[in-house]
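Example record for the data management plan.
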Amino acid sequence: MTNQSPLSSRGRLVPTLPKGDVLGTYDTYFEAQAAVDRLARADFEVKKVSIVGSDLKTVERVTGKLTWGKAAGAGAASGAWFGLFFGVLLTFTATTGVFQYVFAAVIIGAGFGALFGIVTYAINRRTRDFTSTHQVLASKYEIIIDPSLTMKAQDVLSRPETH
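Corresponding structural encoding:
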């Protein structure tokens, strides 16, 4: 006996791949998204449409060299945001000097953040001396659709787009 429900017996979602017909295959997510947008503009039932990325790759783009200054600056910026959040929370209990609490919390947060950034950089310095961004990209994107709607969707996508 197979369980057709996306929920397990404990009520948690179980990840499953959508099943149905492949309406189209695209090189980029934005091309697949544009096709689904065309269906949506044609009042198509898009709740039965999925975009599935296949052949995933991790892409790390190096953005620069990491230095002591950059490590301290990034830590200070992060700490300042945390300090701002904490300072705003303090204003709920303060009766006077509200802006002084916020300003002090931002300065203290930036100081601790810079210190933490420098310590982290000192520990990791020989293993990672650069900054980067990470992305997970698919090599192809397929639009999967309920088989009962395939012909209607093909008809919508085959028509010239009107603006």
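Summary line stored alongside the record: The chain has a mean pLDDT of 88.
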